[in-house]
Amino acid sequence: MPTAKTNKTLGLLALASLTPYKEKKGEEYMNEKQMEHFRLLLKVWRDQLRQEVDRTVHHMQDEAANFPDPVDRAAQEEEFSLELRTRDRERKLIKKIEKTLKRIDEDDFGFCDTCGIEIGVRRLEARPTADMCIDCKTMAEIKEKQLQG
């Protein structure tokens, strides 16, 4: 069953006129075609996020008003606060995308940082910035929950 993240990624692929990468039988993992596919995917995603940042800046400049009514002013401040929190998360995501693009350039993309095995094309399609295989990521999340617990 598709998740919200998967749907977002699939929406991004559609936006970029890209289709998910289909591995061919016997194909070498993280060959040049795969690397180019993920490089393009990440660049389109980054550019889309940057456009959202620009839209927010223009929206806030255009919509900023000094309402005499405190309720109207508070509503506008809350709206701007939510937008800024969203943009802050996207800013962090842009940094992660940049880091991933650097890994592609350094030929270090697609392998788990923890154990070194292949992350897998399907996982990378769902989360192109993944730097851990599903097993290591699951264990890291379990440990994190235990520490918070």
Structure description:
The chain has five helices and no strands. With 149 residues, it is an all-alpha fold. α2 runs antiparallel to α3. The protein has one domain: Four Helix Bundle (Hemerythrin (Met), subunit A) (Up-down Bundle), CATH 1.20.120.910. The chain starts with a helix and ends with a helix.
Essential attributes:
mainly alpha, about 150 residues, disordered N terminus, single chain, about 70% helix, about 0% strand, Four Helix Bundle (Hemerythrin (Met), subunit A)
Short description:
With 149 residues, the chain is mainly α. The chain has one domain (4-148): Four Helix Bundle (Hemerythrin (Met), subunit A), CATH 1.20.120. Helix content is 68%, strand content 0%.
Write the layout of secondary structure elements.
Blueprint: H1 4-15, H2 32-63, H3 70-105, H4 121-126, H5 134-148
Helix pairs in contact: 2-3
- Compute the number of helices: 5
Unreliable stretches (pLDDT < 50, length at least 5) are 1-7
Distance from N terminus to C terminus (CA atoms, Å) equals 29 Å
What percent strand?
A: under 5%
* Helix percentage range: 55-70%
Strands, total number: 0
* Overall domain count: 1
Radius of gyration: 19 Å
Describe the global form. elongated
CATH level 3 topology? Four Helix Bundle (Hemerythrin (Met), subunit A)
The biggest sheet, with number of strands, parallel, antiparallel or mixed sense and barrel status, is:
none
Structural class by sheet pairing and helices = mainly alpha
Q: Which architecture would the CATH scheme give at its second level?
A: Up-down Bundle
